[in-house]
Design brief:
The chain is an alpha+beta fold. 46% of the residues lie in helices and 20% in strands.
C-alpha cells in the first residue's frame, strides 16, 4: 500500500502556510495516520481531507486505485455528505454499490461501505478521514477504531502544526514580520556558498532609516514603530522576487540579492530607496500623520571584495556585511536618502 500526499507549495497552502522543509513533519503525520487507519479496518482506499467547513475540504493524502488523481485534480468532498458528517460525534457509515463518489466518475473503485469521520479539536473542524471497503461492511468495533484513529490524526496534526508555527514566529521579527538576524545568518551563508560554487556574483545591502530619532522625539515611539513597520513593508514589496529582506535591529534592515551584478545591485538599491519614500507617508491610527520616510543604502557585492579565493563562506559573509556597513556610513555622511556602492577600499580590516 502506498500513501500519496500533496507536496511542496500545494501542501503549504492547504495545511501550513510554511516552507516545504517545515511541511515534511506534517506529511509524515498524514502518511502514518492514513496507513494506520487503513490497516486497522482493512480498507482498500481512503483519504484525508483538510478544511474548516463542507465547502473548503481539500484532499491532502490518499491511497487506493485513484489516489493520485484525487490529489492532482484537487477533488472536492461531496458537500451534502460532508454536512452530514460535520454534525456528528461518531463516524458516518454509508453504503452503496456504485463507484465511489469521491473518486472520478469512471473509477474502478466500487464501494460496499464508506466510513467517514470528522477530524476536530473540540468545536473546530480540521477535516475528514474517509475509508472505503469494497467487499465487506464495517463492524461496530471498526467504527470505534476509526473514531480513535481520527483523534490520533487530529492530535498529531495540531501538535505538529503548532510546532511549525512556533518555529515560524521564532524566525520573524515581531514588529515588522520580516525574517530576523538568526534567519539572516543561514540565508547569507547559503547565498555566499552558492555564489562561490556557481562562480556568480551576489549583493548585500545595508538599509538605514533616516532621522528615526527625530520621528520618535516629535511624534512618540509609537510613530517610530509605525515608521519601521511601513519601511519594512515597502522594502519587502520592492525586493519581491529579487531579494530577501531582514530586520537587522534598531533602524537597520538588510537585503540579500542572490544573483546580482554591480549594476543590478545598484538598480535594486535605488528602487528600494525610492519605493520607501513613495509609500510610507500617511495618516496613523488613532491620530496623527507620518511624514515621508527616507532611507540610506550601502551596497556590497561579493566580487567586489578582495582576495576571495580560499576564503570560507563565514569569512566572506562577515566581510560583505562590514563592507556594506562602511558604504552605508558614507551614504549617511553624504546627506542621507541616497545609495552608495562599496569599492574595494571599503573591504579592509
Amino acid at each position: 500500500m502506498r500513501i500519496h500526499t500533496l507536496r511542496g507549495v500545494k501542501l503549504e497552502e492547504s495545511v501550513l502556510g510554511a516552507s516545504s522543509s517545515r511541511a515534511r513533519p506534517v506529511m509524515r503525520v498524514l502518511e502514518e495516520g492514513l496507513e494506520a487507519a487503513a490497516l486497522g479496518v482493512r480498507a482498500t482506499a481512503g483519504a484525508i481531507f483538510i478544511g474548516a467547513g463542507a465547502g473548503s475540504l481539500r484532499c491532502v493524502a490518499a491511497f487506493g486505485p485513484e489516489a493520485k488523481h484525487v490529489l492532482e485534480h484537487g477533488q472536492p468532498f461531496n458537500r451534502a455528505l460532508a454536512k452530514r458528517v460535520l454534525i456528528r460525534r461518531t463516524p458516518l457509515i454509508v453504503s452503496g454499490s456504485n463507484p465511489d463518489p469521491q473518486f472520478r466518475f469512471r473509477s474502478s473503485q466500487r464501494t460496499k461501505q464508506a466510513a467517514i469521520s470528522r477530524l476536530h479539536d473540540g468545536g473546530e473542524t480540521l477535516g475528514l478521514l474517509q475509508l472505503i471497503n469494497p467487499k465487506e461492511r464495517f463492524t461496530e468495533h471498526e467504527a470505534r477504531v476509526i473514531a480513535g484513529l481520527s483523534r490520533y490524526i487530529t492530535t498529531s496534526l495540531i501538535q505538529t502544526t503548532s510546532l511549525r508555527k512556533q518555529e515560524l514566529l521564532a524566525a520573524r521579527d515581531p514588529l515588522t514580520g520580516l525574517r530576523n538576524v538568526r534567519e539572516l545568518d543561514s540565508e547569507l551563508t547559503r547565498a555566499v556558498s552558492l555564489a562561490r560554487r556557481t562562480e556568480r556574483n551576489m549583493a548585500l545591502m545595508f538599509v538605514d532609516v533616516d532621522h528615526l530619532k527625530k520621528v520618535n522625539s516629535k511624534l512618540g515611539h509609537a510613530a517610530g514603530s509605525e515608521a519601521l513597520k511601513r519601511t519594512g513593508k515597502a522594502l519587502d514589496e520592492a525586493a519581491a522576487g529579487v531579494g530577501s529582506v531582514f530586520r537587522f535591529g534598531g533602524d537597520e534592515f538588510i537585503v540579500v540579492q542572490r544573483h546580482a551584478s554591480k549594476e543590478s545591485a545598484r538598480a535594486l538599491a535605488d528602487h528600494l530607496r525610492s519605493h520607501v519614500a513613495a509609500s510610507t507617508a500617511g495618516p496613523m491610527r488613532p491620530h496623527g500623520v507620518l511624514q515621508k520616510i527616507t532611507v540610506s543604502v550601502g551596497v556590497a557585492t561579493l566580487n567586489g571584495l578582495r582576495h576571495l579565493n580560499g576564503r570560507p563562506p563565514s569569512d566572506l559573509r562577515a566581510r560583505l556585511m562590514t563592507t556594506a556597513d562602511r558604504a552605508l556610513f558614507r551614504a549617511k555622511s553624504a546627506g542621507r536618502n541616497r545609495v552608495v556602492v562599496a569599492t574595494s577600499r571599503d573591504d579592509r580590516l
